[in-house]
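Appendix C reproduces, verbatim, an entry submitted by the partner laboratory led by Prof. M.T., so that reviewers can inspect both the input and the predicted structure.
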Amino acid sequence: PKEALVPTADALLSQKSWKKSISKKDEKQRNFISYQDVVVQQTTAPSTIIDMRGPTSTPIIPLAKLPTNSTSTTTPTPPPKVGEELLYNITFLCNSYEDQLKSTHSFVSSTSSKVTSLANDVNQLQSSLQKQNDKIDTLTQVLSILNTMEQDVSVGRSRKEAEEILMTQLASLEELFSVQELRDIQYDGMILPSLVSPFIECYYLPKYWNEKASLFDEKEESSSHVCQEIVTNICHLAKCICSHAKDKEQHERTKQLIYTLVTQHVVPRVKHAFQSTLSWDPLVQVEDGLRLYESLIDSVQENEKDMQQYKDDDVKEEEGLFGIQHDDEDVIMELQAAAAAVRNQTSKAKTLMNLVKEEIMFDVIYPRLYRTLHEWKPIIFNQQLQHPLHTWIVPWLPHLNHRSMLQTLLPDVQRKIKSTLTFLARRYKNDADDDDDDDIM
């Protein structure tokens, strides 16, 4: 009987393969064949030709097995042509080796490009390392120069000798950097003023300048003269420091250095002197305040005139070139007008004069005057008006030309004058009535 596809329960029980206690003697042992046996079998056994051309081809009979009887009806199939088989095999091998060569070539080219890129990276790292070493050497020299400058300031040399040493040290410091590096580290705007500031504090500023003492103290030297001398010395020092630069660079560097130094050392102290109610009284110390402010304005204005000469020379050269290139007078006038417009735009830029007016006059003096005017009242003492308006307001009128201050202050002055005249008229009328009463008595 045929075996069922699905074994029955009786068949499974008869096999007894499900019992745990079944012996392992009936299991078939695996027979392992070593590779030596396989090689021996291949050498001793006759070679077998496997036709891979498919079932439609006629089976190949080896020549050794061909029947010797010539009367055999079977026609033997000759073996395939050797040339075609060799051509196919050679073509296959050539294609395989060509693919291997292509893959090897691509691998070699990619590897060579990687080697080239790695070599470039190594060169870049070496160059960056060299640059870092150069920077370390430069910073070491900078540190040595700074230590020398600090020692020179603390030694207590004469002013002229200290100036020469300072110029030498700053020149050697600038030689360590290129022009672009000086711009990157903001040498003119930050580093140079910080290096010059200790020298200014040691040799240019008097002892009481940075103290809390009033600049209007009569015991000290005239503050207006001291302020003007400080600004003049700072301008002279800045010009000497920047004298080695080119003409246009010298102008810009000197202007920037003067602006920074005056802003750091002069403007804050003068501003504090006018701002403090204990040091300056607008009603009493009118002349002292005017002298201090006018001395600062005059020194700054004189410096700006000197600096403007460089620009005027450049403009004259440009106008001369314009005159050579253009013979038409209208064209020359247009070019001169354009140059004047450029100068006007430059004058409206941020200058030291505008800074002084902004920081001192508009922010300090004008608010003090306005507040004092608002609080002022006419007082008669010994038949005289105490602190009349013309004694402490009129002297400041030429300087109240910044940001329409005068237009704001004049209406209050007019009201105060009217109220004062009314008060004086009433006072004199009362005095006259008292005098008449005394005559009648």
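Residues 317-328 have pLDDT under 50 and may be disordered. Additional entries are available on request from the coordinating office.
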